[in-house]
Specification:
Largest sheet: none
Oligomer: single chain
Number of helices: 6
Radius of gyration: 19 Å
Structural class: mainly alpha
Order of helices and strands: HHHHHH
Shape: globular
Number of domains: 2
């Protein structure tokens, strides 16, 4: 995850023109906000790779994803063309919106201090709601 955000942040700084059309018109300082979000993505991407800063960086990524959601919504509402295209991606702009929730969930998973206390995947047989750090499997679950 960290490499994904660090690389994406670098692209924001190297090619801000790609991101400028995404900016909703009601926000000021479009270029500055693109640079700011790029630097934030890069710093948080590197920080989430380091155990000492992983938790706080993951919370920062969550906040960043919430902060950029209006731009993603703007793209969907107005079918904003990106990357020099003549027209937007139509329905695919709407399809990509739920992925923000998945990215937030992915970052949230990193807010746990270590892999040993991260929630197990649903495939493990435990519901996410039943899991708490240090808890044992429910009795009668057929597991250890």
């Amino acid at each position: 995850m960290g490499i994904f955000y660090a690389a994406s942040g670098v692209v924001h700084v190297v090619d801000p023109g790609f991101y400028l059309p995404m900016m909703p018109p009601y926000l000021p300082w479009h270029l500055g906000l693109v640079y700011l979000s790029g630097v934030a993505e890069s710093v948080l991407g590197v920080a989430v790779l380091l155990p000492a800063t992983r938790r706080v960086a993951a919370w920062g990524i969550i906040l960043l994803l919430v902060a950029v959601f209006p731009a993603n919504l703007h793209i969907a509402l107005h079918d904003v063309p990106l990357g020099g295209r003549a027209q937007g991606f139509g329905v695919w702009n709407w399809v990509r919106l739920p992925f923000q929730a998945l990215f937030i969930a992915w970052a949230w998973w990193y807010t746990f201090s270590s892999p040993a206390v991260r929630p197990r995947a649903l495939a493990s047989g435990y519901g996410a709601a039943a899991w708490t750090p240090g808890s044992s499997p429910p009795s009668g679950s057929g597991r250890g």
